[in-house]
Amino acid sequence: MQDKNTTESTFFQLVEPILTQNLWHRISKTVESVDQYVKKLKTVQLVQLVMNAEMKQYTSLKEISNSLNNDAFAKALHLESISTSQISRRFREMSTDIAGIIHKEIVQTLGLRLGYNTLRQSLGRLYLIDASTITLCLSQYLWADFRKTKGGVKLHQRIRFDGDPIPDAATITVARKSDKSQLEFLIVEDEDALNVFDRGYLHYKQFDYYCGKGIRFVTRLKNNACVEVLRELEIDEESVIEEDLIVRLGKGKSRMEHDLRLVITKDSEGKAVMILTNDFDIMAEEIGVIYRYRWQIELFFKWIKQHLTIKHLFGKSQAAVVNQLFIALITYCLMMLIKYKAAYQGSLLDIQRLLRECLYEPFTSFMQKLHRKGPPTKGRQRQDWERVYEETMNRVFSGEMDDLIRSTEIL
Question: Per UniProt, which keywords does this protein have (predicted)?
Fold first, then answer.
């Protein structure tokens, strides 16, 4: 049983979604003999230990073990101490199905909490699909062979995007697995869903299957693709779209059975961007906007690599690596839940930083500090000279200060 002080803490509010009896009942049905012979460090305690390490960016098992020197943390976990060898063994033996089930549960909880905003009303539910490789030392991770001198694992990720990137589904493979090999596990088949992915997922047979099943997608076409233009669609003269075409891809036996739509626009550098879709109803300009949203999944990968611990691994076995990556995603989702529970409009990084400082304080105290505004400044304000310098140089290079420079030379 949790006492009142514990349940009112910020830490409990953070981890509460993974403590429910229903969740662990489902896990026990899927994974046989969970914690059957475990006397110390139950699976739920292990997950919380690693979550704490992810959030605080620990890089070693020793730091995880030492984290229990914090009396408040030890009390919250009902665990006085644990050795690095015990952590390593339990993490290695923990079934990857457990972390996967917890991840799905938290994603579902987050989806119910957020709902969908106006983006869904105009474009449908937007799902972004991509993969990111985490390089490993081949001599230490022989099972993750990638190239002659490198090892690696690949996080294949689906993001549900309706204003905030929410990790919706993931598969983890060795890095040599191609991106398109995992597309069937990440694609969303609902009629209301619009799947967006990069040109690394180009697969004519799968595209024919999606067209036949009414599964909508937007992707980018490779420059060397074999394209037969069937007809041109009208575009507005003032549109940023250069061409809107009905096409058929492939040739010979690889020729597709279904027509697709090819929209050609330009990026910020003036280079042509060829965007492919099987949705013939949305406007060409909207297709360009939708594909730009794909960048949000790149920002997500960058965020978790910078602010969670996924580059420093706590185990060398495949199970340990997969468990750590899933727990990182779980940690991200739980922090998102705290952000929305607190009705905070700032960044997720603000949430993470404050959680590190106030994790064992009452949640009401955490809320007050999160929403507290700084006191008004008094007297003469300090000038931000670095910002002034940058703005001045930008004006010089843009030519805005040419007249001022010439007049100074005359004087």
Answer: DNA recombination, DNA-binding, Transposition
3-state secondary structure of 171: strand
297 within 8 A of 311, measured Cβ to Cβ: no
Report pTM: 0.84
Counting Cα atoms < 13 Å in the Cβ hemisphere of 253 gives 0
Is residue 126 packed enough to be buried (19+ CB in 10 Å), middle (13-18) or exposed (0-12)? buried
Q: DSSP characters for 18-46?
A: GS-HHHHHHHHHHSTTTTTT-SSS-HHHH
> Cα 349 to chain center, whole Å?
14
Is the C-alpha dihedral spanning 188, 192, 197, 202 positive or negative?
positive
Q: What are the backbone dihedrals phi and psi of residue 7, each rounded to the nearest 5 degrees, phi first?
A: -70, -25
- Sketch the domain layout of the chain as residue ranges: 4-98+315-368, 199-291
Pair of tokens at residue 97 = 């199905």
DSSP category for residue 257:
S
Residue 386 vs residues 380, 401, 402: alpha-carbon distances, Å: 18, 19, 22
Determine phi and psi for 366, rounding to 5 degrees: -60, -45
pLDDT digits (tens, 9 = 90+) for 313-337: 999 999 999 999 999 999 999 999 9
Residue 391 has pLDDT above 70, yes or no: no
3 state SS of 311: coil
Give the count of alpha carbons within 13 A of 368, CB side only.
5
Q: Is 249 helix (H, G, I), strand (E, B) or coil?
A: strand
Q: Which of the pair, 275 or 123, is modelled with greater confidence?
A: 275
Joined tokens for residue 206: 């799968």
pLDDT value for 405:
40
Share of the chain above pLDDT 70, in %: 86
